[in-house]
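Could you show me some protein's one-letter sequence and the numbers that encode its backbone in two labelled lines?

___
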Amino acid sequence: MTENSLSFDDLRKKAIELTKKKIKESVSKDLMIINAINNVEELEKSINVLTGRLREWYALTNPELVNKISDNEKFVEIVLKDDASESVMGAPLDSDDEKAVKAQAVSIHALIQTKTFLLLYLEATMDVVCKNVLTLSGSTIGAKLIREAGSLKRLAYLQSSTVQLLGAEKALFRHIKTGARSPKYGHIVNHPLITGAKKDDRGKVARALADKISIAARVDYFKGEFIGEELLKELQSKFGNK
């Protein structure tokens, strides 16, 4: 072995260093966005289930309040602050009962705070990684589209007709298998431009929106200029949502 040759241990160390570098480079911000939206969705499910249990519990002492406050987050805040008005129908809580109910409310409130933080993180991350997609679709819809596509790169290469149906895979499969009605849109169904449109116009709005999101994804992936506001204004002008 010559003086310049590498020993097996040296080769092993270099291979490990190269592998670590490749792994580090493979962890893109796309994966951070996907994990963030997955956790947001799981938190939303947990919050809804646990708040439902809290409502059942609190209805024993104040059914009027439970029926009056439909917003889950506001309901939890009221229980925590003990701002509930006097009930004429419910039974009074003893101190141990009250502590148990409050403990449940505290745990839900912590989940709500975590969800709020993740939504802020998601928006900040997308503002750096895919500002055009963020502007067109909003953080939650945009993140879900990236997740369904698998990455920003894959989203950028998808046809707009496919982008339109991302998130509607189950309905599309059912259509192919059983002949059920074909879905018109997936995750973008919750976009303000679609929810604000007349029922007969929603398909047309969805196609136009998906087309603009496709353009935005390509510009973001290839590091182009920010054109999100321009694309959004075109849609708003065309469909009267200003």
User: Anything to note?
Assistant: The CA atoms of residues 13 and 233 lie 54 Å apart. The chain is about 75% helix and 0% strand. The two ends are 75 Å apart (CA to CA). Residues 130-242 form a domain with the Serum Albumin; Chain A, Domain 1 fold (CATH 1.10.246.90).
